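Minutes, methods subgroup
Present: GH (chair), OT, SY

1. OT presented the first of two proteins processed in the latest run. Sequence and structure tokens recorded below as shown on screen.
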Amino acid sequence: MNTPNKLTLLRIILVPVFVAFLLLSQIPNNFLYALIVFILASATDALDGHLARKNNMVTTFGKFLDPLADKVLVISGLICFVELKLISAVVVIIIIAREFLVTSLRLVAVDGGNVIAASSLGKLKTAFTMIAIIFILALGAVKQWGIGGIGTSLDIVGEILIWIAAILTLISGIEYLVVNRKCINVTK
């Protein structure tokens, strides 16, 4: 168990902490704590990948668990946002459907001896999704502090950001499918 894999496990352990802070409104400043945990968990993603590549510590375990940890963190946050009526369920359905599509496509490709790397559009989608989640969490924290004038206009910005993330997600899913259609042989 190397350091990058430990960081990935830490990210998974932080998911229920993040969800608890986000959903337990009885905790004062719960959005602030959820934001801090989300940023910390997201930072472990950047750090584990950097350390694994820099120190040649890439493992099969890490290749499996790292993307899973990322998806669990992001999807957990988005589902909580739906529960809290902060975003539309349609956004989450688009994001989850794309993740199933790309993961399935990668599994089929590996079976055929191919590896499907992350595309630039896929990376942009991930960055936009993280920015949208952080913005919505930060806005929730600011609202809890009761700072006057914060409200509807920034709610609209959060909604626009999450819909841009959903649109990028949809387009990147289509891109993966089109670019890698040779991996799916419909005649067999």
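2. SY then presented the second protein from the same run.
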Amino acid sequence: MAVDVEIIVGDSRKVLASFPERTFQCCITSPPYWGLRDYGIEGQIGAEPTLERYLEDLVAIFREVRRVLRNDGTLWLNVGDSYTSGNRGWRDPDKKNPARGMSYRPPNPTGLKDKELIGIPWRIALALQADGWYLRSDVIWYKPNCQPESVKDRPTRSHEYVFLLSKNEDYFYDSDGSKEPTTTRGQLRNRRTVWSINTEASKEAHFAMFPPSLVKLCMVAGSPEKSKIIDPFFGAGTVGVVAQELGRGCIGIELKPEYAEIARKRIASAAVQTTLFSQRSSLESA
């Protein structure tokens, strides 16, 4: 089924304000993590000089998201954690991960020491809860193929969080469509809160992408077919690719034009592959 996927290049803080209330069924997104990437764009989210300013910016953006969601809408928010920088002002690039290099590093947040885990995901979740969101679930995204770390004084991180938040107490949630298999063949159960999903590399961009299978779980649970999805941090466009596959409309907002172009190409390529598969299936059944 053909659906519309629109990409808007711009600052989500401004673009979201242009939409009427109750436009979208669901928001699935992963904002830039604080102090971990330099996207080279002035005013970028994640490059705030303080953790407090980062939280304030995200709360303001997701307040607009809540406004444009339907009354039964949900927000599926993926975010990872980070450690204090030790007040270093830069970071070298990595051969395996060129985007790791940064010309700036934020100072340690007030009250935190060197080498401390900041707890950013929960700080965001609790800030959104305080701003009016219903915090409904914390999902652990376990990454079996996580990137190795050379640390010798703590475990290697192999998970991130996906928070389910709702606009109101009652909201759309497809529990039947999102069920998972049990150890008994043919039986299903309500989906648990630990999702084991591999990360997926991108040949087009040197940054982490949503795995489509992760996005698909959120989209199936959070929206019916033919509904409309919003992603205010579109990146390489995985939410749009999955929306197209599942028969949902989608609007993605991306600040960096180069990433918007990557997203456009991925979505166009996925559409061609879907059409070819549909045609092949029709011929095989004829």
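Chair's summary of item 2: Residues 29 and 44 are 16 Å apart (CA to CA).
Next meeting: continue with the remaining queue.
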